[in-house]
Amino acid sequence: PKIVTLPGDGIGPEVTAAAVQVLREVAPDLQFEEHAIGGGAYEAHGDPFPQRTRDALADADAVLLGTVGGAQNSPWNSLPRPLRPESGLLALRKALGCYANLRPVRVQPGLEHLSPLKPELARGVDILIVRELLGGVYFDGDRKLDGDTAYNTMRYTTPEVERVAKMAFWAAEQRKGRVTSVDKANVLEVSELWRRDVQALRDREYRSIHLNHEYVDSVAMLIVSDPSRYDVIVTENLFGDILSDLAAVIPGSLGLMPSASLGDGAGLFEPIHGSAPDIAGKGVANPAAAIMSAAMLLRHGLKRSDAANSIERAVALALREEPTRDLGGKADTKTFTNAVLEAMG
Amino acid sequence: PKIVTLPGDGIGPEVTAAAVQVLREVAPDLQFEEHAIGGGAYEAHGDPFPQRTRDALADADAVLLGTVGGAQNSPWNSLPRPLRPESGLLALRKALGCYANLRPVRVQPGLEHLSPLKPELARGVDILIVRELLGGVYFDGDRKLDGDTAYNTMRYTTPEVERVAKMAFWAAEQRKGRVTSVDKANVLEVSELWRRDVQALRDREYRSIHLNHEYVDSVAMLIVSDPSRYDVIVTENLFGDILSDLAAVIPGSLGLMPSASLGDGAGLFEPIHGSAPDIAGKGVANPAAAIMSAAMLLRHGLKRSDAANSIERAVALALREEPTRDLGGKADTKTFTNAVLEAMG
Ligand SMILES: CC(C)[C@H](C(=O)O)[C@@H](O)C(=O)O
Ligand SMILES: CC(C)[C@H](C(=O)O)[C@@H](O)C(=O)O
């Protein structure tokens, strides 16, 4: 199988290299092909998503992404919107047709103390957030900034809602069978459609799933005050952007959070943390999220669950034995990666 | 001065009565006039915001609102959208021209243990969230649900951005002088306008304010993992809905959170908690948020800061001496209200 790696900006190259090292160990048959994306791609090719990168995706079996973007005050942020690093990321999602972003939020046993929440609230949290990734206000073409007025359009169609809801129901079948669909149906017509279609699909095809609907403002509260009530959360693009980042703080370190974006073609696997330009190139970044994203690549992209499990077990062990600096430990990128490799035996 | 009270649904009447009792004590010259809103108004008059209520606002100096809406499974939620309780609330905001919703989030000294956050994170939190309340995706007329597609429009104009930003800068001048403006300018044109206009206003008229801009997903994280970094947060309607509810969990009880909605005319003052139909009519609701909303009414609506301060001090005392059930104490609505009245001397 062919894996396209897109190391990207900041610490992206370091954590991606670590993930590739682990992948080579458990799946020696993988072929890797590296390409440019983000700010670096703009510097080198004048485009944050160059044609050569786009072409390479055609026969890829999965894509492993590092991180994209510069510091808050990076000159990249003042480029015209289509040239900014984020535009490369959005174009990549679109090119791959990845309409469902899966973000597991799990508090590892023994690491509850890292959470900003009280340990009794953090303990045992195990949520899967399924975010719609190709629709809504992100991609709708009806958008404009013109003088002293501007607008964007939050639009969804039934097929867009159904395909991501299917993904959520499918995932829930392998978990506790409970799905919470999040919207703002008390105010938005687009949410009314969302709620109607998610419910209809459940009633038609997923009768064993327990589905409920909650408002986004209420979920923002409850995810913090009572996170254990959730199993699978499914929501539209913008709400998902906010809620998945919010939920990601519960385990206490973004350095622990992987993600998978799935669609009809090759999946996209990436850590959710940013490019951390302040520590880039120093060899101290925590590669756990990238390595766990590689595990998701094996599980969802290549259907190799055994290899995925073995990586995840090894990461859990390494986190206890060689915690990185962001976790209050001492390990640098290399030490941690070696601990993972060793734990895999 | 004439105060219009709108007790509303659920526990609204109980907590509003408590707040009125306290107001009568500190401001015997106030005239109260009670009117219908929400689900109850729909039942009685076929309209969640009846004409008679609308008329009463014309010469009001301030409006004290209880709570609006029914249980999750209330038949009110299946009414056509314009007849639902929430529509009454939105129509009320619009009628009053309240474009800025102010929500103070303060962790009371000694009550840190109520927070879902670790006490060391909760301690000393003192944020003011200023939410734009009349624009964006909430009120824009370009909206439709039609067969298998639906959309809403997130629109802002420069005057709408400037008037709420002014309110935030004004509030910050009386606090630590720091404003964080929240948007999604890396994706949305409407956020680009927002960011540009907030910054331009600061540069033109509020040079002493320290202004920074953050993305909504990042703020959702940081409000939980590092709440003390914020002084005043200003944001558009939908982001404000989510972030203000999120921030409201930090003090540990929604029963403690007041709000003020200000504009060019009479202000609207209301607790942020819901109508809690499960405990309605039992006399056990915590009226602290309604009473603190009455304090905000005195401060912002009638410019009577001394009376406002005396209520707030009394509430803080009563919370320690006669905590209500939601706070792990025993006091019911009456006991708590009496404790406030006593503490005011
Ligand atoms: C960088 C940005 C465009 C992106 C998004 O909003 O989708 C990011 O926040 C994310 O969640 O991956
Ligand atoms: C009830 C609903 C329409 C309302 C809103 O979204 O504004 C509520 O959530 C609030 O924040 O006051």
From TrEMBL, chains A, B:
Q: Give the record's keywords alphabetically.
A: Amino-acid biosynthesis, Branched-chain amino acid biosynthesis, Cytoplasm, Leucine biosynthesis, Magnesium, Manganese, Metal-binding, NAD, Oxidoreductase
Protein name as annotated = 3-isopropylmalate dehydrogenase
Query: What is stated as this protein's family in its record?
Result: Belongs to the isocitrate and isopropylmalate dehydrogenases family. LeuB type 1 subfamily.
Quote the record's binding site residues for Mg(2+).
Answer: D217, D241, D245
Positions of the record's site feature: Important for catalysis: Y138, K184
Query: What organism, scientifically named, is this protein from?
Result: Deinococcus humi
Answer yes or no on keyword Amino-acid biosynthesis.
Answer: yes
Top-level lineage group: Bacteria
Query: According to its UniProt record, which cofactors does this protein need?
Result: Mg(2+); Mn(2+)
Q: Name one GO molecular function term.
A: 3-isopropylmalate dehydrogenase activity
According to its UniProt record, the EC number is 1.1.1.85
Keyword Cell membrane appears in the UniProt entry? no
Q: Tell me how the cofactor is bound.
A: Binds 1 Mg(2+) or Mn(2+) ion per subunit.
Question: What is catalysed by this protein?
Answer: (2R,3S)-3-isopropylmalate + NAD(+) = 4-methyl-2-oxopentanoate + CO2 + NADH
Record: residues binding NAD(+): G274, S275, A276, P277, D278, I279, A280, G281, K282, G283, V284, A285, N286
State the protein's purpose: Catalyzes the oxidation of 3-carboxy-2-hydroxy-4-methylpentanoate (3-isopropylmalate) to 3-carboxy-4-methyl-2-oxopentanoate. The product decarboxylates to 4-methyl-2 oxopentanoate.
Biological process (GO), any one? L-leucine biosynthetic process
Q: Which GO terms describe its cellular component?
A: cytosol
Q: What pathway is this protein said to act in by its record?
A: Amino-acid biosynthesis; L-leucine biosynthesis; L-leucine from 3-methyl-2-oxobutanoate: step 3/4
Q: Which residues form the Isopropylmalate dehydrogenase-like domain?
A: 2-340
Quaternary structure and interacting proteins, as annotated = Homodimer.
